[in-house]
Amino acid sequence: MSPTDPARTLATQLPDTPPGARITLMGHVHRRRELATVSFLILRDRTGLAQIVFRPEQLPTVGLPGEETVVRIEGTATANAHAPGGIEVTAPEITLLSEPARTPVVELWRPTLDAALPTVLDHAAVTWRHPAQRAKWELAAASLRGFRRTLDAEGFTEIQTPKLVDSVTESGANVFPVDYFGTTAYLAQSPQFFKQQLVGVFERVYETGPVFRAEPHDTVRHLAEYVSLDAELGFIRDHRDVLALLHRVLLGMIESIRTESGDAVARLGLALPAIPDEIPVIHFQDALRRVGAPDDEPDLAPAHERALGEWARQRYGSDVIAVEGYPMRKRPFYTHPQPDDPRWSNSFDLIFRGLELVTGGQRRHRYSDYVAAIEARGESPAAYASYLSAFAHGMPPHGGFAIGLERWVSRLIEASNIREVTLFPRDLHRLTP
Amino acid sequence: MSPTDPARTLATQLPDTPPGARITLMGHVHRRRELATVSFLILRDRTGLAQIVFRPEQLPTVGLPGEETVVRIEGTATANAHAPGGIEVTAPEITLLSEPARTPVVELWRPTLDAALPTVLDHAAVTWRHPAQRAKWELAAASLRGFRRTLDAEGFTEIQTPKLVDSVTESGANVFPVDYFGTTAYLAQSPQFFKQQLVGVFERVYETGPVFRAEPHDTVRHLAEYVSLDAELGFIRDHRDVLALLHRVLLGMIESIRTESGDAVARLGLALPAIPDEIPVIHFQDALRRVGAPDDEPDLAPAHERALGEWARQRYGSDVIAVEGYPMRKRPFYTHPQPDDPRWSNSFDLIFRGLELVTGGQRRHRYSDYVAAIEARGESPAAYASYLSAFAHGMPPHGGFAIGLERWVSRLIEASNIREVTLFPRDLHRLTP
């Protein structure tokens, strides 16, 4: 049966099938129920569920196949107001395509996946088959499409940059060393240096790919490997232009979820985020005051982020709020200072439902500013030679941001642990499955 | 100047600008020419080139800015049949946004990038700015879009799978070890095991992302890190369904290049590949005979692939040919055997212009077949426990393929070295820039 063979009917096509038509379905047995007078088999394919009805004389002599058996079913589309979509399949002939060797550790046909998180993660290949679990990744896939579509429409060029690098980008710690042909390489903590260099080439770039953080803490919101949605663009005025782009990107991601993953949204009973016409912005100093933190705090604690998220919800009816002007001393050297007061930066964090989701801002663009900033940290510009060569040859004012995909989906469904939305999470204790 | 500020005019918008309009352009100085009676500045932005004309009295007192200076220019759109697109900019006022600190190692304004490959690679941040160089990556970006768009339209789900794995997928050698929180992890050589497991969930999946091969040889067609375009789908009859999908995907990639990167195609003087309505297929045994190789050769040598490519071109007018039925003993254990003769496999390589571009085929789908195949290699199924759990719980007949992105673009432009089309190549000798 070819993937485009019109002879195959998908579960979601069933309601549009004329009653009486002889059709072929393929998928996993989601549920079997054998009763005295009639038996049912619920078939699961990539689009949804279909109900197959067996009269006693139509049952295979060995009985109905068990859950997770892969089958092809030929049968007759039959109207039944009680069936999902109003059409069920009767007079079925069943062919087994592959039979399970084990019983799943969870009952996939139950409405909710009733298992502890370690069980769900340990048996990922099976637990992701649960429709409600699977819906979580469908949100991620739709978000990726929305991210790229928004940026494609604005003249961005997709890039793919190396994950093997010769030095450390963001911070000296939290990096994975790799044995690279006898020397040491590192796994990239972000595409930051590459995407900036490529702004000099393509002016507007984005990348969707893995980044690696040797995060030594075991928290519900960190992973050792995650998917970073990076964008960077030239010829901005300041970080507010970057924030405006982020706003359009978030709306594009939500629109993609709404229009292309409506079924996943329904399965999860999801309320899509409220993003107002303009993202509320608060300066870091004001944010400290608002949450009652001392004036000299260098960063916002998780409790502060939650309080700001709550305030944005109440004050602006918004699920997002941007905090701008983080202290320069806590930001990486490429961060552009606030022109009127260089203690603060032209950078921001976006807090989504009380958790930092995005870091972004304007970057420095003048070569001499980079040399001075690196020397001020007691480092040698020579250690950054290939990165700095982009700036030595003229770079536009630019900035960008990075969204953590798993964090986005996690807050979207208000998961208690980011691992719930990650296909195969990697952390301090987990390198498998 | 906001990125969406209508006040900014892009180079490609200039021909549509009404003569006499006062406009603002931004970009790099691509070329300056100061003559006695008139001076020119060619501006380069993300869309193309624009010509700015200075009368002597309009020149800045310090003269025109040098190449690679980043500028904003306000001027008057003026018809001139000799200017690119028929419109040039006169009466300019120029603002310097950032000045280069060094002279580029290559002259970017020359029609071709006239430098040895090591120079081009060592100075990637600058050499990619050359319009003809940049066009190569634009083909890659368009190919990524075409790949995803084709599969999105066929009901595929995008996946993002871990690059950090606990064991070796494809072969014991050629793998990079990673110091992972005190234990050893490896960089994934392919998403093979994950994409198969996820066929059990989403039925049709694809991934675009980095893969890693500790390739100990220094060749013109291998990289230590490259971008793999992976697809995998369930409910196939055999590998011919996979090849048919690959055919549609290649056509989609070419269509995307043709319609969205027409300017890059023109800059490179590129002849798009000839892909016939059906991809020619030859069995491995027949391929050996045709190239005059002994019957017991286990694989095709590069010279054989070139000869087959030449033959496909002459016989079928095709830039591609598929070789099916590779010997089972040379294929990975998950390869599905040819049902009528298990010495051969239901797998294929696609040869594109004389070089292997794609490996694909049908995979085994029965748990017992996997256990037998792994034991036949003298290995323990327990070492593959999490992978095998997908098959223990029922998997549809399935298959897939992987396209090397850089190899595709490399053969597309008939580059002599794959590094010419890779943004920042990684190999035995190169970990920077």
pLDDT < 50 runs, ≥5 residues of chain A: none
Percent in helix of chain A: 25-40%
- Count the helices of chain A. How many? 11
**Terminal-residue CA separation of chain A:** 31 Å
List the quaternary state of the chains: homodimer
CATH level-four homologous superfamily name of the largest domain in chain A: Bira Bifunctional Protein, Domain 2
Q: How are the strands of the largest sheet of chain A arranged? A: 6-10-11-16-15-14-13-12
The general outline of chain A is elongated
CATH topology type of the largest domain in chain A? BirA Bifunctional Protein, domain 2
3D architecture notes:
Two copies of one chain form a homodimer. The first copy, chain A, has 433 residues and is an alpha+beta fold. Chain A folds into two domains: 88 residues, OB fold (Dihydrolipoamide Acetyltransferase, E2P); 298 residues, BirA Bifunctional Protein, domain 2 (2-Layer Sandwich), CATH 3.30.930.10. Chain A is built from eleven helices and 16 strands. Chain A has an eight-stranded mixed β-sheet, sandwiched between helices. A five-stranded antiparallel β-sheet of chain A has the order 3-2-1-4-5, with no helix packed on it. Chain A has a three-stranded antiparallel β-sheet with strand order 7-9-8, with no helix packed on it. Chain A is elongated and about 85 Å long. The mean pLDDT of chain A is 95. At the A-B interface, strand 1, helix 2, helix 3, strand 6 and strand 7 of A face strand 1, helix 2, helix 3, strand 6 and strand 7 of B. Chains A, B: This is Aspartate--tRNA(Asn) ligase.
